[in-house]
Design brief:
The protein is mainly α. About 65% of the residues lie in helices and about 0% in strands. The chain has a two-stranded antiparallel sheet.
Length: about 325
Amino acid sequence: MTTLTFRKPSALPGFGLTLGITVAYLSLVVLIPLAATFLKTATLDWDQFVRAVTSPRVLASYRLTFFSALGGALINAVFGFLVAWVLVRYTFPFKRIVDAVVDLPFALPTSVAGISLAAVYAGNGWIGQFLAPLGIKIAFTPAGVLVALTFIGLPFVVRTVQPVLEESEREQEEAAACLGASRWLTFRRVVLPAVFPALLTGFALAFARALGEYGSVIFIAGNVPMKSEITSLLIITKLEQYDYAGATALAVVMLVVSFLMLLFINTLQWYLQRRTSRGSAGPAPHGPTSGPTGGTTGSITSSTTSSTTSVSGIPAVSAVGGGAQ
């Protein structure tokens, strides 16, 4: 007997055509420019390449760039989650305005963001004037770099966590509370596993965005070599000196390290999603049993039967029935 198979209708052309368009577009936008960067670096021999990427000034810029990007992404992972939680779980006046403010770092030109941050955190700024008597200086120091990278990375975390919180089932949290779980235990065993992959994605996006930031940083960092100079600024400096090979050498190092870190984060995210899906596909619960009146009683079968229930890793709570107290 011949089996007839029907392809599902699609609004777009076939696989071959769409795949060809995808490969061509990615090649023009991503692969060819990156390949040109590596080819330009090939004009240097190995010794020249090593000297270009390991000079003390370059290493200092690497340390400042990567640690500031990592610190900003970690700060945004914590406070970005809190912002997303408030926007999803609570209703308050001007909620739409607060939600729109989150996207301002997306919309603002980086130069405007840098000038705004410098005006706020400078020694005579709105916040800087109160920190200066305490000996705390943010503008034109490495701390200014951290502030700028935190500012531009916040929307990435909020916008990746927010949809997951909106789709999460609050019934599981309520069930965990009914089972006697504390708020911390409910957060750790119910809420966090559900949002952690999205939180990790937001962290990775904020980190990657911060690595390449330039416009907002140069207005608040001070740009002092060996102290507050980021790698992006050093690349621009080399280009202004017509040292194109040296600039591309720094760019290649940034590209390779960024790719490896993003690959690690994406692999960790895949592992956590797989582990979460395996954990949620646990043994099927026992079916409901008929009670004395013919109705269903769930897992409690009589007034003298102990029942245990667990929700998403919450330790089971034993409920021993009894007569009316």
